[in-house]
Design brief:
The chain is mainly β and 260 residues long. Helices cover 8% and strands 55% of the residues. It folds into three domains: 93 residues, Single Sheet (Histone H3 K4-specific methyltransferase SET7/9 N-terminal domain), CATH 2.20.110; 61 residues, no CATH class; 95 residues, TolA/TonB C-terminal domain (2-Layer Sandwich). It is built from two helices and 24 strands. β6 and β7 form a beta hairpin. 17% of the residues are buried.
Amino acid sequence: SEYYKSGKIRMSATSKNKNNLQLEGLRIDYYENGNKKQESNYVDNKLRGKQFSWYENNVRKSEKEIIQDTKNKSSETKTLKFWNPEGKQTVLDGNGQIEETEGEFYEKGEIKDGEKQGVWEGKNIKKNYTFTENYKNGKITSGISTDNDNNKYPYKEIMEKPTPTKGMTHFFQYVAKNFKAPQISGLQGKIHVTFVVDKDGSLTDIKVLKDLGYNTKDEAIKTVSSYGKWTPGKKRGVPTRVLYSLPISVNNGNSMNQNR
């Protein structure tokens, strides 16, 4: 379970593994006022089946279905029903219109056969830019964001992950080559590093969540910070800060980095 700072429950679920979160079965998320926010079902730590959501005042919000494609290792979410904050149903049997604010995003558009269809419009309330997107059978085909200065940011996917300028393989090789592990016989384990790829591609907020002692913390920070800039991540075409994690494995004095 997870709790708000006030002590109120935020989420309850069951994990198959005590040491590593592996969700199985029903997960319930709550608003801080105690009302249910969402009910989801997990199979092998993946969302599957029906998902039900409510507004903070306990009015029904949506009914969705998550379908896992095990062959392509992907999932598809269909919106079956949707109600606006006043309780009026605007999507029935997977067809209708949605207009909602979720977090910092507002958006509206058509749902057809459970999927986004046609032109969707919206706004990032926090960063104050608007966007227009085109969908076909639930897949985005194009989009463009416009900021306050009328700058345009075209895109073809909602989220673009940040990448090292010379590719992930080069970054991993660089860390493995430049991290100087202490020559301590029998020393082994993982150093867990997190950092933020900033909007200009620079690596900031480098932190070591777990180290092995023997100056491995400072060495990890030094190695990551010396790499140089990345191609920044983008949300709806707009450069954005993205948190990244990197485990560095040490085994008998040799270092080897692993995927994110």
